[in-house]
Every structure is written in C-alpha cells, then in structure tokens.
Design brief:
The protein is mainly β. It has 3 domains: about 90 residues, no CATH class; about 120 residues; about 110 residues, no CATH class. It has no helices and 24 strands. The chain is globular and about 55 Å long.
Length: about 350
C-alpha cells in the first residue's frame, strides 16, 4: 500500500498456515496455523507460534490440536478467554494422506469432518488442555467448521461456525445447506452451544467483532461469487440484519478488528485475475460506511494461492497483518507472510 508499508517478512516457512492471530499482553503475538505445505491433503496439526518483537521473528511454541491420522486438524478459530487464557477451537478432515505423498485418485468430497475440539493454554500456547465440548445444532446432515476470532461480548464468549455442504465442500453450489452460525459460551470457553443463525444457504467462513452494548458485526464469505457480506446484530447475536456487500466477487475471507483510534479495520484476501494478495478497508462509523479499498500487498503474478489475512495493532500504532502464500518470486515455498504497516491517519 503506497506510502504506508513498513516491512515484509517470510515469517514461518513451508506451511500453508491459514493463520489466526491473537494479541496477548505487552504486544506479544501468537498465531494458530495448519503446519503442512498443502491444502489440507496431509496429516497435520494446529501449531501455535509466538512473536515477542512485533511480528518480525516467530518461534514455535506448541501444538494446540494434534492431528489424528488418518485425519488432520486444520480448521481453526482462536482468541482469548476472559481469564486471559488462549483458546483454539479446531476441527479437521478424515481420511487424508501421509505427509510427502500424493494420490491422483484422492477426492476431497469423500472426506468426513472431525468434530471440533476446544484447546486451552494458560502459558501463551506452550502447553495445552483439550476437551470435546461443543454442542452444535442437530440438523442431521450438516458438518460444522470453526472459523475466525473467538470474541468476548457482554454475555460471555462467541465464535462463528459454518455448516458445510453434505459432500464436505465449502464451495459447493449455492443451493447446498451452507449457513453461518453464532455460537456462545457462558463459562469462559469451557463449553459451547446456544447457536443462532447469522445468515443461511450461501455463507461459510465468517469473522465476528463485538461493538459493545449487545451489538455485533459478522462478515461472511459467500459461496455464489466469493464476495464478502456484512451483517449486524443489536440483540447479542440472536437476530441479524444484512448490511450489504463490502468487497467485490473473488475477495475473501475477512478479518475485523478495532483500532486504537476507534476505527474498524477490515482485512481480506484478493483472488482476482492479476490481483492476488491482501486488501484493507477502514470505517469510522462502526461499519455503516467504509472507505475505498486499499491493496496492502499484491502477490500476482507469482502467487495465486494466497490470502486469509488476520491483523492486530500494537501499542505504538503499527498494524501486523499475517497471511499465507503458496510462493512468491523471491521465495518458492508455501509460507506465512507478515506485513508491518502504519494505518493512514483519520481525515
């Protein structure tokens, strides 16, 4: 982004990642990632890595959700509990292949979802306790996958799940039963349930933001053309209003965060011909209107498999945005990349 980009790093090498980043105390950052350099075809784990220097250098801390061969753990939501613990909710798929192998007959549609597991760490991701404690709606046919931030609200914690189509595909035709859900915890992340629908039939990967006073935003990836749709709730997530699109087709998924000056930052992936990377938008009225998009990083033409950004702001105002990429001209492997940048000042 012209005039504001500060630094770029290859932060974690040889992973597909799909990072989810959480800021802890004293500007400490952690990310939960899928630890294999493929799109979920191999056994793999959800690892947690940490940075103590504002996102420049990252070190592996531990495994939040170990893979369970013949399946993996790769779908993740993450955040902090009210007591400060780090929370990861992870699911995955089975069967998958052994690392380093491939099979031309392997069909993703033949996979089954692994039930979500709640993982909790009181030491910044180094050691973990794990429990199967998510109660999701019994629809009889849908598979539920966690995504985005675990967020603290007025009545406890909340997280988004989406229900995949019956064949396990997150990108099936719009007629499939794909729905974004708002799921609650009233015991600080020990158990989860009491789900309500954000948007039905055309939505999957969704991120949440709490605005205060029972008000929430949810930004959902659509299935039909891959744009982002914004929804709002004024009753603590029980009912939702459609606020309209906030990106063009092929631009997804999204992450929401509130900046220190009160503005909202929307970070999202770009997957358009000739433009692959990460874009951002700003709002100074809690998401009612948005400034024009800015391209934070363009990885075309080398990488067309990239995105899934997640952003956090440090106390000095620097924004750290993590994303993944299959490879760039200067680095040929899958990796998690970092951009450290400065937000344009408010008008």
């Amino acid at each position: 982004m012209s005039g504001v980009m500060a630094e770029r790093f290859i932060a974690i090498d040889n992973v597909c990642a799909w990072p989810n980043m959480t800021r802890l105390d004293d500007d400490e950052l952690v990310v939960a990632i899928y630890n294999r350099p493929v799109h979920g075809r191999w056994y793999g784990d959800i690892e947690v890595w940490g940075s103590d220097d504002g996102g420049r250098l990252w070190r592996r801390r531990g495994i939040a959700a170990p893979g369970e061969p013949p399946g993996n753990r790769m779908n993740v939501a993450a955040g902090r509990a009210a007591d400060g613990d780090l929370l990861v909710i992870a699911s995955g798929w089975t069967p998958v292949l052994e690392p380093g192998t491939d099979d031309p007959q392997f069909a993703f549609g033949q996979r089954q979802v692994i039930e979500p597991r709640v993982c909790r760490s009181g030491d910044g991701g180094r050691t973990w306790q794990r429990a199967d404690s998510v109660q999701l709606p019994d629809t009889g046919q849908q598979w539920y996958i966690p995504f985005g931030d675990i967020v603290s609200g007025d009545q406890g914690l909340a997280v988004s799940f989406y229900s995949a189509s019956p064949d396990g595909s997150a990108t099936a035709a719009a007629g499939a039963a794909n729905t974004a859900w708002f799921v609650r915890s009233s015991d600080d992340g020990a158990t989860w349930g009491d789900a309500s629908i954000i948007a039905a039939h055309d939505y999957n990967e969704t991120d949440l933001l709490h605005l205060g006073a029972a008000r929430w935003l949810a930004v959902c990836r659509t299935l039909t053309d891959g744009h982002l749709q914004l929804f709002a709730s004024d009753d603590d997530g029980h009912t939702w209003m459609d606020r309209g699109p906030v990106s063009l087709p092929g631009q997804h998924p999204a992450h929401l965060t509130r900046l220190a000056d009160g503005r909202l930052l929307l970070s999202y992936g770009l997957r358009n011909q000739g433009l692959h990377g990460v874009a951002v938008r700003l709002s100074d009225d809690d998401g009612r209107t948005w400034q024009a998009p800015r391209t934070l990083i363009n990885l075309s033409p080398t990488s067309t498999d990239c995105g899934y950004p997640t952003s956090a702001q440090l106390t000095d105002g620097t924004v750290v945005t993590a994303y993944y990429s299959r490879g760039i001209a200067e680095h040929g492997r899958y990796h998690m990349g970092i951009v450290r940048w400065t937000v344009p000042t408010a008008d």
